[in-house]
Amino acid sequence: MTGWVVGALAGGTYLIRLSGLVLRERLRVLDRFSRLFDLSALVLIAALTASITVFEGEVFAGWARPAGVLLAAIAAWCKAPLVVVIVIAAGVTAGLRALGVP
């Protein structure tokens, strides 16, 4: 199901961007709405990431996964390379699960 959601979000984002190019000369959008359009894709992806991080199906995923994502987000905020961010997320999550943290 997650694949369909990601595909729908990607398709919707693509169509919004494409409509901006096609309708640029015909439609005038206020600046504040233009800013909201730009933020909408970010909000949708953040909500999807948060739900995948916290839940596995309909149950709580445990503390290891959110801890790994949190430390990876901090590393990304500090402008660490993507490979380092991924290794931190996987390493922290695997390490905590190895220690018995669910």
UniProtKB/TrEMBL annotation:
Keywords of the record: Membrane, Transmembrane, Transmembrane helix
Bilayer-spanning residue ranges: 6-24, 36-55, 67-96
Top-level taxonomic group: Bacteria
Protein name: AzlD domain-containing protein
Organism: Pseudonocardia eucalypti
